[in-house]
């Protein structure tokens, strides 16, 4: 029998090359975007408010992102600006702000609720893509590793 000693390091104690390996491994481990369900709940609630259905969508940093709905002018008849608040947050998630704030601002500026709805959907897509891109950044990954106090071998391999 023989005994081996392995040194274990916190992320901030690793060499730059070991940090890059740890970040790369984290990025490539197949972890999904953590807030996708919350973003979708916000979008669905927004559409539901206007009785609009989401027909199709694709959201991701490596593809063309879009949301296709059945929104038509009929969905927005009799809607009045004073019935809306740009600060309305029905799901309590931050993407409500992109949806309702954009809708309110554009509806106020143009008077066209359908256009405001479509601009709000576009703002939601930009919002989730920006968040996805940030979550994939070295900065966000390093922050997550440090906050969770993961430990590594000297070469940046995650220690179980």
SSE diagram, text form:
Layout: E1 9-10, H1 16-27, H2 36-49, E2 54-58, E3 66-69, H3 95-110, H4 113-135, H5 138-147, E4 151-152
Antiparallel strand pairs: 1-4, 2-3
Helix pairs in contact: 2-3, 3-4
What brief labels describe this structure?
single chain, 160 residues, mainly alpha, two-stranded antiparallel ribbon, two-stranded antiparallel sheet, 5 helices, 4 strands
A few lines on this structure:
This protein has 160 residues and is mainly alpha-helical. The protein contains 5 helices and 4 strands.
Q: How many H/I helices? A: 5
Secondary-structure element order, N to C? EHHEEHHHE
Sheet with the most strands? 2 strands, antiparallel
Give a count of the beta strands, DSSP E runs of length 2 or more. 4
Structural class: mainly alpha
Across the major sheet, the strand order is 1-4
Distance separating the two termini: 23 Å
Strand content: 5-15%
What gyration radius follows from the Cα positions, in whole Å? Answer: 22 Å
What is the averaged pLDDT score?
Answer: 94
Shape: elongated
Oligomeric grouping of the chains: single chain
Helix content: 40-55%
Could you name the ranges where pLDDT drops below 50 across 5 or more consecutive residues?
A: none
């Amino acid at each position: 029998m023989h005994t081996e000693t392995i040194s274990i390091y916190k992320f901030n104690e690793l060499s730059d090359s070991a940090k890059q390996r740890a970040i790369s491994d984290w990025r490539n481990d197949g972890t999904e975007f953590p807030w996708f369900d919350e973003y979708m709940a916000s979008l669905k609630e927004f559409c539901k408010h206007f009785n609009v259905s989401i027909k199709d969508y694709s959201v991701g940093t490596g593809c063309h992102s879009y949301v296709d709905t059945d929104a038509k002018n009929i969905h927005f008849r009799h809607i009045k600006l004073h019935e809306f608040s740009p600060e309305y947050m029905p799901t309590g998630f931050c993407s409500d702000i992109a949806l309702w704030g954009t809708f309110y601002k554009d509806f106020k500026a143009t008077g066209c609720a359908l256009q405001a709805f479509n601009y709000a959907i576009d703002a939601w897509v930009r919002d989730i893509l920006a968040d996805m891109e940030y979550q994939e950044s070295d900065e966000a990954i390093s922050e997550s590793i440090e906050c969770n106090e993961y430990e590594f071998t000297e070469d940046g391999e995650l220690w179980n």
